[in-house]
Amino acid sequence: MTMKIPHTALAVSLALLLGGCMVGPDYHRPQAPVAAQYKELPGWTQAAPSDATPKGDWWSGFNDPLLDQLEPQVSVSNQTVRQAYANYQEALAEVTVARASLFPTIGVTGSGSKSRTSSGSSSLNSNFHPISTSGSVEGNISWAPDLWGKVRRTIEENKATAEASQATLANATLSEQTALATAVIELRVTDANIDLLQKTVDAYTEFLRVVSNQGTAGTTAPSDVISARTQLENAKSSLIALGVARAQYVHAIAVLVGKNPEELDIAHNGTLPVLPDVPVGVPSTLLERRPDIAVAERQMAAQNAAVGVAIAAYYPSVSLSAADGFSQSPLAGLLHLANHVWSVGADVDETVFDFGARHGEVTAAKSAYEASVANYRGTVLTAFQNVEDDLSGLRILSQQAEVLDGAVKDATQGAQIAVNEYQAGTVDYTTAATAQVTQLSTEQTALGVRQQRLLDTVSLIGDLGGGWSADQLGDAKHASKAR
Predict the structure, then answer these.
(1) Using alpha carbons only, how large is the chain's radius of gyration in Å?
(2) Does the pLDDT value for residue 81 go beyond 50?
(3) Mean pLDDT along residues 319-333
(4) C-beta separation of 6 from 342 below 8 A
(5) What is the pLDDT of residues 166-197, one digit of tens each?
(6) Per-residue pLDDT tens for 378-403?
(7) How far apart are CA 263 and CA 180, in angstroms?
(8) For residue 389, which of 456, 321, 445 has the smallest C-alpha distance?
(9) Which of 38, 169, 253, 427 has minimal CB crowding within 10 Å?
C-alpha cells in the first residue's frame, strides 16, 4: 500500500512552511554592569581563563589526599548532582518533543468486522440470516505547518531551558564539590584543634603536678591546686566535646559522596591542607565561567522565546490532512483498485474575539522576560560581590595571620617563662595560669584564621565558577609571590 498526497497540496504546504515567518523578538543578551577589574585585585595575579579551560581537579591545589580521593565521587554519587542530571535529561527530551512538531504525523489504521443481519422474511427460511464481512485499511498523514514560528519559538524556549538545566547541573556539581572541600577543611581543623587541646592537656597536667608539689611543700595556697585542677578538667572537657563536631563532619562528608554515614571512616589527621593561590582573572570572565550566571542567562533566552510563542496565538493555525487506502464489504477483494479511497483536507482555526486573553498572555510573557533580565543582572552583581568579599577576606586574613604568627611565638615563650618563674617562686599562680590560657587562646585564634583563609579560598574558587588545572594553580602560586 502506498500513500498518495496531491502534488499541489504538498507544494503549497511546503511553500507556506518555508516562507513562514517567526513572530516575536529575536534574542539578544542584555548588557550587564561589568567593571574593568576587581576593587580588591591589586596584588593578585591576573589571568585570562576561558570557559573551555578544564575546571576539574581544582581541589588538587590544596594537596590533601582525602580531597583527591573523595572529590571525583561527587559528580558520580552525590544525590543532588544525580537529581540535576535527571532534570537535564528530561529537558533534552522536551526539546525532542518540541522538534517533532515540525514534521507530519503518519499513521496506519485498519478495521474488520463480521455481522449477521435479519433477512426480514417470514418464510421457512426465516432462520437463515446472512453473514457479511467488511474491512478497511488506510494510511493517514496530518501536518500543521509552522507558518508563524510558534513551534520554532517553542523549540528555542525548550533548548534554552535545557541549556539552563545543563548549567544547573554544573552549578550543582560545583556547589557540592565546594561543600565537600569545606567539610574536609572543617574536619582537618577539628583534628588540629584536638591535637592542640591534647598538647594543652599535657601541659596543664604537668602544671598541676608542679602546683600540687608546691602545695604539699606549703609554698602555695590550696586554692591554687584546685584552680589548676579545674583548668585541666575544663581543657579535658573541651577536648572531649570536639569529638561531637568531628563525627558530624565525617557524616556530612559521607552523604556528600553518596554513602551512608556508617560506611565511611576517616582517620585522624591534624595536618591542614595547603593554601593555594588562585588566578582570579578579570570580572568579564565571570560571565563565561559561573554556572549560576549561565542558568540566569539561559532562562532569560527561554523567556524571550516564550514571548514569541504567546504572540503566535494571534495568528490562525492551519492543519493539513490526507488519507489513502482501501475499503470493501464484503472483505474479499479489499486491495482491488476499485476499492481504493482517498481524502485530503485542510482546517483553519482562528480566534476572533477572546476578551483580551491573548493580550494578557503576551503581556505576561513580556513581564516574565523583564523579570528574567533583572534576575540575570542581579545574579551578575551578586557574583561580583561574592568575589570581592572573598578577595578582601583573604587579603585581610593574610595580614592577620602574619601578626598572629608572632603572637603565638610570644605567647608560647611567655607561658614557658611564667611556669618556670612560678616554680622558682618569683611569680604567683595567677600569672602563670593566665599566661597558659593566653597561649591556648592565641593558638586557637591563629588556627581559626588559617581555617578561614582555606574556606575563603574554596569560596573564591566556587565564586569564580570553578578552578583551573593543577599546573595553572601552581603557575599562579609562583607568579604571585610578591603579593
Answers:
(1) 38
(2) yes
(3) 64
(4) no
(5) 888 988 999 999 999 999 999 999 999 999 99
(6) 888 888 888 889 889 999 999 999 99
(7) 16
(8) 456
(9) 427
What gap in Å lies between CA 448 and CA 35, rounded to an integer? 33
On whether the pTM is more than 0.85, the answer is no
Q: Distance between CA 348 and CA 405 in Å, rounded?
A: 82
CA distance 255 to 274: 24
Q: Above 70 in pLDDT, residue 158?
A: yes
> Is 82 or 333 the better-scoring residue by pLDDT?
82
Question: Quick one: which of 87, 103, 98 has its CA closest to 157?
Answer: 98
**Contact, 74 vs 59, CB < 8 A?**
no
